[in-house]
Amino acid sequence: MTEDLAKALPVEAHRALVLHDRRLVVDLIELTLNHGLFVVRAARNLSEAEAILAEWQPHITVVDMDHDDSTALLQLLGASNTLTRSVTPVLGLTQRGDLQTKLKAFDLGVDDILTVPFSPEELLARSIVITRRATGADRPIVPTISLGEIEIDILNRQVRAGQSVVHLSGIEQSLLYLLASRCGRVVNRDEILDAIWGTDFVAESNIVDRHIRSLRIKLQNGYRHPRFIATVPGKGYRFIPTFSNRGWDDEPDRDESSTR
């Protein structure tokens, strides 16, 4: 997150430290937790986390429990607040959803654990609940999140743009979050599969394209005149953080039959 953006957020925004070495996941976490609720800083390893903690005390830490430095960071967090006799609350992330992994994480001091891939709304809700327990601050669990000129109600899975409201499925909403989190950069099909369906998922060859097409239909996003999602031939998809009212209040784009 840039320094200017951090300064622009409300002073009451909570601070969230993220330990994860995959930029795509970090971007998704940042997009989900920002919007005035959290200021996010990310570390790829223990040394980067130590540098952040030396000058910046988080209200919550999101830790990839599959990371080699996860245990060391949890030990560091447990020792960093000894004067107040409290430990920085931790939300653990793991690609292994078995009971043994979860029990080990709780034994290491994690307050809650979420299996990857996760839904953005669940990540946000759990993060707010954890910080609310630790700080006593009463925060709404369901804010409206802005993606460019789109607004999303994450509880009701509604997208508002112009005068129109559309309802998204959980996968469609996760797709929209994932693409938007890359700030106009290309996300390829393998990255989408990994982030939304998980590394162990055996996918049909066109599952990503089918869900992109479904999302585009609901957003009235024509292939030749993309309003929110552009196809980059041979590479993947890119979110366009702008909004055109064309198609919302009239007929949908006629190009939808060629949506890929």
**CATH architect. name of the largest domain:** 3-Layer(aba) Sandwich
Number of domains: 2
Percent of residues in β-strands: 15-25%
Q: C-alpha Rg, in Å? A: 19 Å
Q: How many strand segments?
A: 12
* SS element count, helices: 9
Which structural category do the helix and sheet elements fall into?
alpha/beta
Helix content: 25-40%
First-residue to last-residue Cα separation: 32 Å
The mean pLDDT is: 78
Low-confidence runs of at least 5 consecutive residues: 1-11, 81-86, 244-260
For the biggest sheet, the summary is: 5 strands, parallel
CATH class of the largest domain: Alpha Beta
What is the CATH superfamily label of the largest domain?
A: Response regulator
Q: From N to C, what is the helix and strand string?
A: HEHEHEHEHEHEEEEHEHHEE
Task: Strand order, main sheet: write it out.
Answer: 2-1-3-4-5
